[in-house]
Amino acid sequence: MTMTVHLSYFLALLTASQGLNDSLLTKDTGPRPLELTEVFKLFQIKYNRSYTSPAEYAHRLNIFAHNLAQAQKLQEEDLGTAEFGETPFSDLTEEEFGQLYGHQKAPERIPDVVKKAGFEKWGQPVPSTCDWRKARNIISSIKNQKTCRCCWAIAAADNIESLWHIKTQEFVEVSVQELLDCERCGNGCNGGFVWDAYIAVLNNSGLASEKDYPFKGYPNPHGCLANRYKKVAWIQDFTMLDSDEQAIAGYLAAHGPITVTINMKLLQSYRKGVIKATPTTCDPQHVDHSVLLVGFGKGKGEEGIQSGTVMSQTCKPRKPRRSVPYWILKNSWGAKWGEKGYFRLYRGNNSCGITKYPITARLDHSVKKLPISCPP
C-alpha cells in the first residue's frame, strides 16, 4: 500500500481540540490515505518502539505528528534536493534529539592548544569532484554512537583511520572507547569536542585497535585502559584549516578526509539528497554535531518530492531542480540512516556552519609510501 500523509491533516491536528482518531481526508484520487495512528503503528514496528503507558503513547504520537508537519515545511523551504520525512528520530522533540545525539554547543573561544596548530591554506587547483569512499580501504564502515553523545570521538577516530590508511596503506580500525575513557575532560558519553579526542591520542602516544578495546556505548567504570593495549595508529599533531570552502576542498582532495562540526537540526528528519539550508533554517553559528567530511561533487538535477506529502514509498516527482554542488559527510548514526549512513550538504554558502571548525589530525610526513589520490 502506498503510504501518504497530508500536511493539512497535521496542521488541523495540532490546533484542534478533538482526539487523534480522525481520518486523513483528501480530495486526491488514489489509495486511501492512512490514519495517523496507522502510520505511527508502522513507525513503531519499523524502529522497534514501545511506550510505558497510554499517556506516553499519546505524547509520542503528538510529537510524531508535529515532526511530520515540520518535515513537510522543510521540504517546501529547502533550496537543494533533500527529502525530509519519517526517520528513527520522529518521535523525539527537537530538544530530546539534541540532548541524545549532539555533543554540546561549541565554545565561542577555541582552546589555545588548537590555535597553536595554525591555519592551513591551499593554493593548488581544486578538482571538480572527490570521493574518498571510492578508494579501497580508506574509509572505514559506518559507526553507530547509539545514545552515547560521542560524535566528537567517532569523527576524530574516522579521521585518524582514513589518514593512516592513506599514509601507510595499512587498514586499521581504532578504538573509540579509548577516547571516551581517556580524554582529559572526562565527559565520555556526555559530549566533547574533536580537539579533546586528538589531545587524548597525543597524551596516550596513539590509539589501540577497536578489536582490542571495543566500543561499549558508555564510559568504562574502571577508567582509562590505554596502557593495556598495543597502539595501532598515532598522530604527530592536529590543525585547524582556513574557513574557506575552496581551501577546504583543496586540502581534502590532497590530504584526505577531515572533521567538521555542524548544526544538526535538519538531520532529525533528513532522508536523502542535498540539504541547501538558509541561516534561518539552520543557524551556522550554533554547531553541535561532529562528522567526517569525505568528499565533494555536483548533483545532476535530482527530482524533489511533490508538495503536500511528507513521506511515501512511491513519491510523485515535481519539476526537476538544477544541479547543486555538495559536500559528502559520514555520520555516526548507523548505516540505516540517511544515504547509507552518509548525507550531503550544499557547498558554497557555509551550510549549517560547516566552515566553523574544520580540523584534522597530522601524521608523520616521513612515511615512505606510494601516494594515493582522491578518486573523482
Automatic annotation (TrEMBL):
CDD domains: Peptidase_C1A (cd02248)
Location in the cell: Endoplasmic reticulum
Residues in Peptidase C1A papain C-terminal domain copies: 126-362
Keywords tagged on the record: Disulfide bond, Endoplasmic reticulum, Glycoprotein, Hydrolase, Protease, Signal, Thiol protease, Zymogen
Span of domain Cathepsin propeptide inhibitor: 40-97
Residue intervals passing through the bilayer: none
Annotated signal sequence range: 1-19
Pfam families named in the record: Inhibitor_I29, Peptidase_C1
GO cellular component: endoplasmic reticulum
Molecular function GO terms recorded: cysteine-type peptidase activity
GO terms, biological process: proteolysis
Purpose of the protein: May have a specific function in the mechanism or regulation of T-cell cytolytic activity.
Stated family: Belongs to the peptidase C1 family.
Name listed for the protein in its UniProt record: Cathepsin W
Native species: Mesocricetus auratus (Golden hamster)
Taxonomy of the source species: Eukaryota, Metazoa, Chordata, Craniata, Vertebrata
Gene name of the record: Ctsw
